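queue> holo job accepted (flavin-adenine dinucleotide)
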Amino acid sequence: MSNLILILGDQLTTAISALENADKERDRIVMAEVHDEASYTNHHKKKLVLLFSAMRHFARRLEADGWRVHYQTYHPDNESQSLEAVIANQLKETGADRVTTTECGEWRLHEQVSQWHGRLGAQVEIRPDTRFIASKQGFSDWAEGRKQLRMEFFYREMRRKTGLLMTPDGKPEGGEWNFDADNRRKWTGKPPAPAPFRVEPDEVTREVIDLVEAHFTDHFGTTEDFHFAVTHEDAEQALEYFIDFALPCFGDFQDAMSDDEDWLFHSILSPYINCGLLDPLAVCEAAAQAWYSGRAPINAVEGFIRQILGWREFVRGIYWLHMPEYAQENRLGNTRSLPWFYWTGDTKMRCMHKAIDATRRNAYAHHIQRLMVTGNFALLAGVKPEEICDWYLAVYADAYDWVELPNVLGMVMHADGGYLGSKPYAASGKYIQRMSDHCSNCHYKVNKATEEDACPFNALYWHFINRHRDDFANNPRMGMMYRNWDKQKPERREALLRRADDLLAHLEQL
Ligand SMILES: Cc1cc2nc3c(=O)[nH]c(=O)nc-3n(C[C@H](O)[C@H](O)[C@H](O)COP(=O)(O)OP(=O)(O)OC[C@H]3O[C@@H](n4cnc5c(N)ncnc54)[C@H](O)[C@@H]3O)c2cc1C
Ligand code: SF4
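queue> job finished
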């Protein structure tokens, strides 16, 4: 009996469960660049280059290892423009009667593949994705019966389970579970931030760049200066580079933003971890090793590991626990459209311009730009969750529904009622001023709130607080904000709300 093994563009590892017990003589691996997957959202051009090139390199490696691989390269005239059509053709061509695959990361595709058995008349085996450190079942067992799901408690459980940064007698290394209090420094240029790790495009990548330029012209972003790794070996080098040059300062400047530096001390590893070029547990182990060998301090290493072992696993758990209803959540009742400047960067707000422009050039912005600048603005302005979610899904090289949706709909928009944070991450311009040097180069004045040239975040922040009193006034973490708002003179409150109404009426002109 012959078997097709489908490997998706974000499953690029020989450790993928679909390959377990596979037979090089009997089985045929199928990989395909198809229109449906490349175009279901306006994917950044660099993301398309990364994935197509990494897929092509991976297919070559499999062939070199002796596998038979059917690889469909992208062309708009291809007969098969969906994965289902490719598989249907391959079943016909090879006479195979079974398909083996690893479960998809996204609900949308998972639903489609789950129906293949009936639609294609072949046996379809869908195996669990064992690359995650917590299984779906493990997460739902942990969540079962808990009144509140808090990342911090899940994370501690994961530390105990994996033994990462744990002493032999079961205590957290360094005496604390979490060193975030040390991780809030502003960056003023010193120490200098390392340049991002670069791989110059090889022939395969250059071909893919030409293809994307020819067929995806209307997609967001640019292919210029593409320098992502597209092989396992190069992604490993990117990890080593991060540990040597950026990890030591990762913690201190984790929340910092800069007018001059796009990447600061972040790892830029999410595009590789999410598509299978790096294994998340191995990345955490490499970081832990850096602490044990004295190459990086505990606040950096713990903070970094928490992002992967804690946040990354937690958001994936929340996604599968609550989909498909999760995608429809809009508990704050937002109705506003996404301002057009999210696609162009054409705004006088310096922080927004910088974050969007970096996103356009790099298919990357670091966490605090995503959360406290573009995300915060969408929250304060009351943008419809589905529109801001679509934007985040399109513009980043690491974006996949399972990780983007909880981060945006949950963490940023608080549209799920608070699985990702006990209070919304709403902030005025003061926060951005404290963590960056953007404000000193901005058209708007961060110390003003009601005037024509006042920072828009300030009045919008108070408008948000005021219009969501019913949602948040009883939240113990928000009480002080409501007391501060109520303490202000009525004329001041009116002026702030007037200014915010005016901003909301003219969002496109900001
Ligand atoms: C609004 C918003 C949207 C986001 N969308 C995505 C997305 O589509 N894809 C994605 O991978 N991450 C997303 N994140 C999480 C985080 O911003 C990115 O993982 C991070 O910026 C990637 O850059 P890095 O590799 O340099 O991360 P680092 O700052 O170096 O962090 C290390 C690693 O931790 C993991 N990580 C950190 N925070 C998170 C988180 N909140 N959720 C999941 N993993 C995390 C990533 O794997 C990352 O590589 C989003 C965050 C926000 C606030
Ligand atoms: S003044 Fe306001 S809009 Fe301008 S950079 Fe600062 S926070 Fe952003």
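queue> The mean pLDDT is 95.
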